[in-house]
Design goal:
The chain has two domains: about 70 residues, no CATH class; about 250 residues, no CATH class. It has 15 helices and five strands. The chain has a three-stranded antiparallel beta sheet with strand order 1-2-4. Strand 1 and strand 2 form a beta hairpin. InterPro entries: Mtc. It comes from Phascolarctos cinereus.
């Protein structure tokens, strides 16, 4: 018994040593490396937080409040504090402190978005079903974007509507247009035509995502976005930083749907030729759903980990395009610009499939 207790204590001590010191409001993992960002976003999209009870949420919030005011009860570990922060960030909006509707949380994006991906990739789609699934996908994205919006610097409702309509129109137009072209291609065999049709959702969704980000954020190219110094102080705004942020966000939105909408058709075209699925066609939908879920679960954290939330811009490239705010002139004299620009919390990964 003594040996067991000693082993358990040693294991607990080792786990505690691996846990970084808790920092309120800061990421648990380093954001300077891809691996650190990947682990960070795995935490954010963890679907287990969907099952957190109201009492557990209150406990987590209270624990963070105690830490903030220096009244933590004895024995609270760093692991418990990180877990409490993860729960709070997964459920409550950081600006409004209100609960986010479960289907529109980042942790709910994969489980609630996978059925839509399956619908997008269904074979032999009609015109009506193509329009429906593309509309439903962009509507789900719009709801996720709005639920996770930056409420401290809100965009006008017209911007969201403009981005939503642009995304829906572009997605539906490209999907319908490409399907029509494939149907008219007489050189393809029926099997080849079906395979090509399965890849139509990707260019439709990717173009809609780019259209959405350009429509919603084009004003940043003219006005610039906030630039911070190395201490996190806002020192002005930069159009160069805005251009970098816009390009990286657009690239993320193109990369994200690629494995989700390209890998499943390839995998299913192989699996459908197996004896199991040919003899049991009823298994096709469950197998395709599992393949889509696996691709979604892998692609989401990988795509949103590509670029850091805070991008570093060379000082020489930022200064000519920084528009200083009068009340910050004194601060600028004392604090040099380090060249860090936030990409803003752009409605999370709902940026979307």
């Amino acid at each position: 018994m003594a040996e067991t207790a000693a082993a358990a204590a040693a294991a607990a001590e080792a786990a505690s040593a691996e846990t970084p010191p808790f920092q309120l409001g800061k990421p648990r993992f380093q954001q300077t490396s891809f691996y650190g960002r990947f682990r960070h976003f795995l935490d954010i999209i963890d679907p287990r937080t969907l099952f957190v009870t109201e009492s557990r949420l209150k406990e987590a919030v209270q624990l963070l409040e105690d830490y903030k005011h220096g009244t933590l009860p004895p024995g609270v570990t760093n692991e418990q504090l990180w877990s409490a922060q993860k729960i709070k960030q997964a459920i409550l909006h950081p600006d409004t402190n209100e609960k986010i509707f479960m289907p529109f949380r980042m942790s709910g994006y994969i489980p609630f978005g996978t059925p839509i991906v399956v619908g997008l990739l269904l074979p032999n789609q009609t015109l009506a079903s193509t329009i429906f699934w593309q509309w439903l996908n962009q509507s789900h994205n719009a709801c996720v974007n709005y639920a996770n919006r930056n409420a401290t610097k809100p965009l006008p409702a017209s911007k969201f509507i403009q981005g939503y309509l642009g995304a829906v129109i572009s997605a539906v137009s490209i999907a319908v247009g490409l399907n029509a072209l494939v149907q008219r291609a007489n050189k393809f065999t029926p099997a080849t035509r079906l395979l090509i049709q399965r890849f139509v959702p990707f260019p439709a969704v990717a173009s809609a995502n780019i259209c959405n980000v350009v429509l919603m954020r084009h004003n940043e190219l003219e006005e610039g976005i906030d630039v911070l110094d190395g201490d996190g102080n806002i020192v002005g705004s930069s159009r160069i930083a805005a251009r970098h942020a816009l390009i990286e966000t657009a690239l993320t939105r193109v990369v994200l749907p690629m494995p989700i909408l390209v890998l499943p058709p390839i995998i299913m075209s192989v699996l459908e030729k197996t004896f199991l699925l040919q003899s049991r066609p009823r298994l096709l939908l469950p197998v395709q759903s599992f393949v889509c879920l696996a691709a979604f679960g892998l692609a989401l954290p990988l795509a949103i980990s590509l670029f850091p939330q805070m991008s570093e811009i060379l000082k020489s490239g930022v200064i000519p395009n920084v528009y200083h705010k009068p009340e910050q002139d004194d601060n600028l004299k004392e604090t040099p610009i380090k060249g860090f620009c936030p990409k803003k919390r752009q409605t999370g990964p709902g940026n979307s499939v």
